[in-house]
Specification:
The protein has a single domain, classed as Sodium:dicarboxylate symporter (Proton glutamate symport protein, Orthogonal Bundle). The longest helix has 38 residues. It contains 17 helices and no strands. Helices cover 79% and strands 0% of the residues. The radius of gyration is 21 Å and the shape is globular. By secondary structure, the protein is mostly helical. It binds aspartic acid (ASP). The site of aspartic acid has 16 residues, from helix 15 and helix 17.
């Protein structure tokens, strides 16, 4: 009997096939074939993921809270999660900056005269905080505003716990609906290999020719920093907190990493991120809370990209950054990555905030905008890997705590 290939292997084959198909289409001069005929199927697949992600997040967080039965436990997991996310993001940007400085001599010089870039207006910090709290329960669900969906789920979860026996019917409904959503999600996830192929081929075919010699070095610096960060920070954290071999971790995480790479959307990848984490042994009550939060606020890859691009833009304009400016970059890139939505291209918009904070010309973004997708694919893969590492770590910490308490 033929053995069925695991989803991870299928997705890997789709990745390799997508890259080859993209390169072949460039070679035969028909990149538009991928855009016209493959991309629509990739978009359908992403739409399906986005369609299921809000109910999955909403019901799995509520179900997770109900199963914890304790508001304090949620607060304790939440506190540890946010601490982990902030620390790893700060390390990510430091790695990006150090590597940029080591290699910026290789960048060459681009012409910056006549650059134009209309920066979208970014909102202040208070408005960002206000925006976390929904003023009605429907719009955030309809618009997939993840942070607000999480807040709604938290309130309903706490409400159900506090209502006790009278909340039982709602709790049963949530648990049953959660199961149904998971089944739908499983079905959509089975389509990932097709989705990855149809998303990746056009991405390669469209961007391949744009990676000019001048941009190649800065791309290499960003990708090196992504890889170093994952190899050091995630390996160390899963090994030291969860006793898991890094190889096992990356193997288990790879289907989500590949989908994130192909789709450039952390939120779109979330259903698969949750599945991979659970297969790696993370607890459901942890993944259901830590991963949606991570897909919204934890963006290590984006922070690296912002650091690398800031140094690149400064050097193209012949500006030397001071130590004070570098510290400002670490701070603002950490904040900017929190504010970045888990959708394609969002990190580039937030790069504006980092550039403005150190007085660099925002028009510099025009230098990197043409190949943003290529940066984005790598940074999204790192973003979701960081979320999965956190879920593994927090889950292990919870196991230890309960082991001690028992
Ligand atoms: N595309 C990234 C993500 O979804 C965000 C970004 O643009 O940096 O994680």
């Amino acid at each position: 009997m033929k053995k069925k290939l695991s989803l991870g292997v299928q997705v890997l084959i789709a990745l390799i096939a997508g890259v080859i198909a993209g390169l072949v289409l460039i070679w035969i001069g028909k990149p538009e074939f991928a855009t016209d005929w493959l991309k629509p199927f990739g978009t359908i697949f992403l739409n399906l993921l986005k369609f299921i992600v809000v109910p999955v997040v909403l019901f799995s967080i509520i179900a997770g809270i109900i199963s914890m039965k304790d508001v304090r436990k949620v607060a304790s997991i939440g506190g540890k999660t946010i601490a982990y996310y902030l620390c790893t993001t700060a390390v990510a940007i430091i790695i990006g900056l150090v590597l940029s400085y080591a290699l910026k001599g290789t960048y060459g010089q681009l012409d910056t005269a006549g650059l134009e870039y209309a920066a979208p207006s970014s909102q202040g910090i208070m408005q960002t905080i206000i925006n976390i709290f929904p003023s009605n329960p429907i719009t955030p669900l309809a618009n997939s505003t993840m942070l607000q969906v999480i807040v709604i789920a938290l309130f309903f979860g706490f409400g159900i716990i506090l209502a006790g026996a009278k909340g039982k019917a709602t709790a049963d409904f949530v648990e049953s609906f959660n199961e149904v959503c998971m089944k739908i999600m499983d079905f959509i996830i089975k389509l990932s290999p097709i989705g990855v192929f149809c998303l990746l081929t056009p991405a390669i075919a469209e961007n391949g020719p744009k990676i000019l010699k001048d941009m190649l070095m800065v791309l290499i610096v960003a990708y090196l920093a992504y890889i170093i960060h994952a190899a050091i920070v995630y390996s160390l954290s899963v090994k030291s907190f969860a006793g898991m071999s890094p190889l096992k971790f990356f193997k288990g995480a790879s289907p989500a990493m590949i989908l994130a790479f192909s789709s450039a959307s952390s939120v779109g990848t979330l259903p698969l991120t949750m599945e991979c984490s659970e297969k790696l042994g993370a607890r459901k009550e942890v993944t259901s809370f830590v991963l949606p939060l991570g897909a919204t606020i934890n963006m290590d890859g984006t922070a690296i990209y912002q650091g690398v691009c800031t140094v690149f833009i400064a050097s193209m304009f012949g500006i030397d950054l001071t130590i004070g400016q570098l510290l400002t970059i670490i701070l603002t890139a950490t904040l900017a990555s929190i504010g970045t939505a888990g959708v394609p291209g969002a990190g580039m918009v937030m790069l504006t905030m980092v550039l403005v904070s150190v007085g660099l010309p925002v028009e510099g973004i025009a230098l990197v905008a043409g190949i943003d997708r290529v940066f984005d694919m790598g940074r999204t893969a790192i973003n979701v890997t960081g979320d999965m590492a956190c879920a593994t770590v927090i889950s292990a910490l919870e196991d230890k705590k309960e082991g001690k308490a028992a």
